[in-house]
């Protein structure tokens, strides 16, 4: 199973409308770049971690953010080196109104996987929402340096240009 990281859905639909992919194979409406971040195993049965992560995403999509955060906590207990778990929990914290915890989790995801583009995009979107333009621009520029999708790169460059105005 190839699983893309969950990206802030509402902000992304506004900021990067063409970056749409499923988290878990086509049935989800969450947005996220393909092949630019951390991926789970591509074949075989799902691991316990993957099951927890997907369950957390499902709960978050249903608006059950506190429950989703609890599931992501369990995923982190299971594998404290999972950048995906920290990324996803960070987004759930953000959607639950806790920007500080969200930013801390995204930083941890970046510390664990410094070459994963997705956490930088997510943190950039949070900084943009918090009106921290210089921080958002820096993260979007880092995202561009880590991704190879020309469509996504152009969209993020356009977003950076808007932030610089």
What's the total helix number?
A: 8
Uncertain runs are 1-5, 9-41
Number of strands: 0
Major sheet: none
CATH superfamily: Tetratricopeptide repeat domain
Quote the CATH topology: Serine Threonine Protein Phosphatase 5, Tetratricopeptide repeat
Mean pLDDT: 79
Question: What is the percentage of strand-forming residues?
Answer: under 5%
Radius of gyration: 15 Å
Share of helix, binned: 55-70%
Structural class determined from secondary elements = mainly alpha
Write down the secondary-structure element order.
HHHHHHHH
CATH class: Mainly Alpha
End-to-end CA span: 41 Å
Gross geometry: globular
Q: Estimate nothing, just give the exact number of structural domains.
A: 1
CATH architecture type = Alpha Horseshoe
Please describe the topology of this protein:
Blueprint: H1 9-15, H2 48-61, H3 65-78, H4 83-95, H5 99-112, H6 118-129, H7 133-146, H8 150-164
Describe the structure in your own words:
- The chain is mainly alpha-helical.
- The chain has one domain: Tetratricopeptide repeat domain (Serine Threonine Protein Phosphatase 5, Tetratricopeptide repeat).
- It contains eight helices and no strands.
- It has helices spanning 9-15, 48-61, 65-78, 83-95, 99-112, 118-129, 133-146, 150-164.
- α3 (65-78) runs antiparallel to α4 and α4 (83-95) runs antiparallel to α5.
- The radius of gyration is 15 Å and the shape is globular.
- The model is unreliable at 1-5 and 9-41 (pLDDT under 50).
């Amino acid at each position: 199973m190839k699983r893309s990281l969950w990206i802030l859905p509402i902000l992304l639909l506004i900021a990067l409308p063409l970056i749409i992919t499923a988290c878990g194979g086509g049935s989800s409406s969450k947005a996220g770049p393909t092949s630019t971040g951390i991926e789970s195993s591509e074949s075989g049965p799902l691991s316990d971690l993957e099951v927890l992560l997907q369950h957390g995403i499902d709960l978050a999509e249903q608006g059950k953010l506190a429950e989703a955060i609890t599931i992501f906590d369990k995923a982190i207990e299971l594998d404290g080196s999972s950048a995906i778990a920290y990324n996803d929990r960070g987004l759930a914290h953000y959607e639950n109104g806790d920007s500080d915890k969200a930013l801390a989790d995204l930083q941890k995801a970046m510390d664990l996987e410094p070459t994963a583009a997705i956490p930088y995009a997510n943190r950039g979107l949070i900084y943009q929402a918090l009106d921290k333009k210089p921080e958002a621009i820096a993260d979007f520029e880092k995202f561009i340096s880590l991704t190879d999708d020309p469509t996504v790169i152009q969209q993020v460059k356009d977003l950076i240009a808007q932030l610089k105005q």
